[in-house]
Structure formats: structure tokens, C-alpha cells
Amino acid sequence: MHRKLDILAPKGYVVLSDRRGPAIPSAEWESLDYMDWKSGGDTNFAPLASATGEMDCRGFWDHGKPDKDGVWTSNGKIAPSLVGYVRGIGGNFGRVRVIKLNPSDEATALRNLHLDDNNRLNPDGDGWVVRSWLELDNTPGQSVFILREEKDDPSTETRIPLHPGMQMVIDTERLWHVVWHPGPRPRYALITSWESDDIIDRWMTRELADVPAQGSRAAMAGGRKVAATARKR
Ligand SMILES: [Fe+2]
């Protein structure tokens, strides 16, 4: 039995407040070294932390370790703000990567719904590994995270419109997930594996505290479509 956080128990995901602080220059994610690695569509990944510090997108289990205690790669020097963001959260991170997702249509995205393998080799009693997202560049209001409790059951689906600066945490070993990104430019996001522990619990609680009650959030943001919308069909 792994430790899981109460904050994720109801839905398996939480939308946090937008990241605060100075804007991260787009050069940080556009200048990274990307590897051809397909996951959730037509994707490339830039590892910022890997199992060994090498440029490696594989699961940490290939190196005999669970998805934590990540080691910074050479990409870390190119993206000090992204590294600072992860360090600032302060928890035990595993894979840290920027995803570059090329545009697709909705049907293609849905075919790419998948579960992640976050907890292989994670010892019983340790914290369940979940993932955070920091959206860097997308098509605001049109790029959408699609989450399902059951892969082939749209009635279990939630759609979360994305915008740059958005932060989320998702138990991606529990929820089927994919991003549908219509383009035309690629979508970039920072994805980090985290061990569930007190640090991550406090970070999520702190970041959540700034989000007005969902439902009123869109109105408070002047009509900007930022609220997570549960779409039960
Ligand atoms: Fe995934």
C-alpha cells in the first residue's frame, strides 16, 4: 500500500492556481535538446531530469529505480527557470521533461488515451508517484486535457481547457489521459513526476488556496475560459 494524498482522492486530479512570478522566456523550452519519444500523440520530449542524468526518456525502472530521485541533465543549464520551478516546489522528483506535442484532431487524440506507469519499483509504504503539469505554450482555451476514469466510456470524461501558466496535478496511473491540441503551433508543457509526501501535499494545498470556487472562476477572470469543466455526457 502506497501513501496517497487526500487532495487527489475525489477526482484523481486537481487544477491549481496559475504559476506566479516573472514570465519564463520561451527560449528556455524552445532551445532544449529534444528526443524522438512518442507518448500520447506526435510528441518529442526534452529530459531535464532523468534516472542517471543522461539524455534518456526511458522509465527509471530500466535503471533499477522507481520514478523519483531524478538527476538533472545537460538540458538543465538551458532552462534555469524551469529547473528553479521544480526546485522551488521542493519535493522528491523523478522524470522532469518538457513535452512538445504536435497538433492533432480530436479522434487521433482520443486514440492516444493511455495510463502512465509511474510506480513500477516504488516500494510499498512509500508515496504514490503522481505528475504535475505546467503549461508553457498552447492554444489558449482550445488545447484541452481529456481525462477518463474508463478508457472507452465517455460518460466518465472530464475536459480541462488549457492556457499558459496553468498548473495541474494528475494521478496518471489512475486516470486515462491525453491532450487534444488543435495547433497550429506545437504545445509545450513541463511534466514532473512527484512522490506523494507532505511537501507536495502542502504545495498543492497552498496553490489551491488561490483558486476561487470552481464555477465562479470563469466569471471572476472576466469571462476567460479557465475553469475546469466536468463534461459528463
Ligand atoms: Fe501520460
Structure overview:
The chain is of the alpha+beta class and 233 residues long. It has a single domain (6-210), classed as B-lactam Antibiotic, Isopenicillin N Synthase, Chain (Jelly Rolls, Sandwich). Helix content is 15%, strand content 26%. It contains five helices and eleven strands. The protein has helices spanning 26-30, 80-89, 106-111, 198-208, 217-220, and strands at 13-15, 35-36, 43-50, 71-72, 93-101, 129-137, 144-148, 157-161, 167-170, 176-180, 187-195. The strands form two sheets. Strands 1, 2, 3, 4, 5, 6, 9 and 11 form an eight-stranded antiparallel beta sheet that branches. A hairpin with a 6-residue loop joins strand 2 (35-36) and strand 3. The longest helix is centred in the C-terminal third of the chain and has 11 residues, at 198-208. Bound molecules: fe (ii) ion. Residues 39-40, 114, 116, 172, 177 line the site of fe (ii) ion (FE2). Fe (ii) ion is lined by residues 39-40, 114, 116, 172, 177.
Task: Please name the defining characteristics of this protein.
Jelly Rolls; globular; 233 residues; single chain
Task: Give the end-to-end Cα distance, rounded to a whole number of Å.
Answer: 33 Å
Strand content: 25-35%
Specify the CATH architecture. Answer: Sandwich
What's the shape?
globular
Tell me the name of the CATH homologous superfamily: B-lactam Antibiotic, Isopenicillin N Synthase, Chain
Q: What is the domain total for the residues?
A: 1
What's the total number of strands?
11
CATH class, named Mainly Beta
Unique ligands: fe (ii) ion
